[in-house]
Amino acid sequence: MNITEYIKKIPKAELHLHIEGSFEPELMFEIAQRNQVKIPYQSVEEVKKAYQFSCLQDFLDIYYAGASVLLYEKDFYDLTMAYFAHCAEENVVHTEIMFDPQTHTKRGVSFETVIKGIQKAREDAKEKYGISSLLIMSYLRHLSEEDAFETLEQSLPYKHLIKAVGLDSSEKGNPPSKFEKVFEASIKEGYVPVAHAGEEGPAEYIWEALDLLKIARIDHGNNCLTDKVLVKRLVDEKIALTVCPLSNLELKVVDDLKDHPLKKMLNLGLKATINSDDPAYFGGYMNANFLQTAEALDLTKEDIKTLVKNSFEYSLLSDDEKQKYL
Ligand code: ADE
Ligand code: ZN
C-alpha cells in the first residue's frame, strides 16, 4: 500500500478542531438564508476569495463574522453533523471537538442552544458512523477572565457532556496567566485543562500554560522549539502537541509547508499529532493535512504510524477506551 492509501485508510483521532472552523461556505449561505441573516458576501466563491490571511487575527475576524449566522439548535446540529460526515469519509474514528460558547452567548444565543445542537449531533454520529467524540469548551482569551468565569458558570448544568476546557482566540498580548484563576476553578469542576500556546505567542506562554494553567496538552506549541529547556520538559513529561500544519501555513506561522517543524518535533521526541484546526478556512480536513505534510516533509509510513498512535495515546479518552484503538 502506498503512503497516500495508508494515510486515507488508517483509523485516526483528531484532537484539535474548532467546530466553528468547520463551517463550510455552502452551509453558511444555506443557514444565513433560512435565518434571514445578512452576510457581506454575494456568493460562495466570494467567501472563498476572502479567505486570505496574513496572521491569526485576520482569520479570527472572518471566523467570528461567519459564526454570526448560527442562531438555533438546528444550526449547531447541522454544523456538527457536516463535520462528522467528513470524519466518516476520512476514517477519523475519534474526535475532540472545541467549541467557543462566548462567540455565541455574546450575540444573545444561549449556552443551552449551542450545546444541545452539538450534543444531538454527537449522539447521531455515534449511532450513524460509530464515531466517538468529546467536547472541549474553549474560553476566548481576548475577553476578560470574568467573562470566562461566567461561561464556566453557564456550563455547569451540562458538565456531564463536557470533558475539558481550552483557551483560544488572539494569542499575542493575552497570556495564559490572565486565566489562571478560571482554569483553577475549571479543574475543580472536573474539567481537563488544555490551551492554545506558542502558535504566534512566545515559548514563555507555553511555560505559563504548563505552570499556571496545569494543562494536559498543548494546542499548536510550535514556538517551544525556540527554548531547549522547554522542549526537554515537554519530552520528559510527555505533554503532547496538537499540531495543525495547514493552519500554520495559512496563518503564516510557516512560510512554506517544507519549512514546517513537524518532522523536527518527532525527531526531538516530542509527542506531536496532526490536526485540522479550522478545516473550512484552511483548505483541508485531516487527510489533506496528513497528505500534504507527508509530501512536503518526506514523512515515512513509520512517521505516520507514530503520529496516529500519538493521537490516540494523548487523547482524553480513558485508558480503557484508548485500548480499543492502540
Ligand atoms: N480559534 C479558532 N482557530 C484558532 C487558532 N488557530 N488559534 C487561536 N484561536 C483559534
Ligand atoms: Zn485552534
TrEMBL record:
Name of the protein in question: Adenine deaminase
Active-site residues per Swiss-Prot or TrEMBL entry: 199
EC number, as in UniProt: 3.5.4.2
NCBIfam families: aden_deam, PRK09358.1-6
Binding site for Zn(2+): 16, 18, 196, 277
Cited PANTHER family: ADENINE DEAMINASE
The Adenosine deaminase domain, residue ranges: 11-326
Catalytic activity: adenine + H2O + H(+) = hypoxanthine + NH4(+)
Cofactor: how bound: Binds 1 zinc ion per subunit.
Binding positions for substrate per the UniProt entry: 278
UniProt record similarity statement: Belongs to the metallo-dependent hydrolases superfamily. Adenosine and AMP deaminases family. Adenine deaminase type 2 subfamily.
Organism for this UniProt entry: Cloacibacterium rupense
Function: Catalyzes the hydrolytic deamination of adenine to hypoxanthine. Plays an important role in the purine salvage pathway and in nitrogen catabolism.
Keyword terms, alphabetized: Hydrolase, Metal-binding, Nucleotide metabolism, Zinc
